[in-house]
Amino acid sequence: MPAAPHKVTVPVLMYHYVDEEPPPAGPYADPLTVRTPDFIDQLQYLATHGYHAVTLAEVYLAMAGMRELPEKPVVLTFDDGGLDNYTVAFPLLRKYGFVAVFFVISKRIGADGQMNWDQLREMASSGMHIQSHTVSHPDLRDVSDARLRSELEDSRRTISEGVSQPGYVLAYPGGSYNARVIEATRAAGYVMAVTTDHGRPVDPQAPFEIRRLRVPAFMSVSEFARLVKPR
């Protein structure tokens, strides 16, 4: 008999871009771009300290009491669908045997600097999960009801059909959401959604408010170790 639904304490890491060139230092530095050497160090740390990368689908099943997660689980997520996710992050994830969840903006697939369908399909066939970051990345709180439905439903259908994977989780653009957005997300067929709110436990009572841990530029290995340390 499945266990009762329960909170799952798993670090859900939030990345955006991984680049060979470091972002500029100072007050105008890009906080969303992690340097490739730092990303390698982070994956190396996870691999050598017994962490197991899992998908958000596995977290959902664990949260519902339908399966057990491995010891020291971690979820790696990437927002926005930048080309570097394929050229830099994807090969490194495969090297270390890690899976990840990539949230892509369906209207931008194949655009300059973005991943294309062939790349996304290759990633999906390698065990990566390709999920929705909406059609055009608006602040969902500010759009009409009709556009809200379109942003959620059209992106889910387009991406799911394009990579032959179920569309089950949404990343809110800019981390912006409210009760209306949550209800529309549920109605569009998603079973969970991730925010940019900082935190760790995944609560079965709030599957559309999953918090994540941002991995910023220039994070040291010791800082990263503290970020992912089991609680």
Please describe what this structure looks like:
This protein has 231 residues and is α/β, with parallel strands linked by helices. It has one domain (8-20, 29-226): Glycoside hydrolase/deacetylase (TIM Barrel, Alpha-Beta Barrel). It contains 7 helices and 12 strands. The chain has helices at 36-48, 56-63, 84-96, 117-125, 145-163, 179-187, 221-228; strands at 8-9, 12-15, 17-19, 33-35, 52-53, 73-79, 101-104, 129-132, 169-171, 192-198, 201-202, 210-214. The strands form 3 sheets. Strands 2, 5, 6, 7, 8, 9, 10 and 12 form an 8-stranded parallel sheet that branches. A two-stranded antiparallel sheet has the order 1-11. A two-stranded parallel sheet has the order 3-4. Helix 2 (56-63) links the parallel strand 5 and strand 6. Helix 1 (36-48) runs parallel beside helix 3. The chain starts with 7 loop residues before the first strand and ends with a helix. The model has no long low-confidence stretch (mean pLDDT 94).
The CATH H-level superfamily is: Glycoside hydrolase/deacetylase
- Report helical residue fraction: 25-40%
Number of contiguous helices: 7
Number of strands: 12
SSE ordering: EEEEHEHEHEHEHEHEEEH
In the CATH hierarchy, the third-tier topology is known as TIM Barrel
Mean of pLDDT: 94
Q: What radius of gyration results from the CA coordinates?
A: 17 Å
Classify the beta-strand content into a percent band.
Answer: 15-25%
Major sheet details: 8 strands, parallel
CATH architecture: Alpha-Beta Barrel
Span of the ends, CA to CA: 27 Å
> Would you state the CATH class?
Alpha Beta
Structural class: alpha/beta
Parts with pLDDT < 50 across at least 5 consecutive residues: none
Overall shape: globular
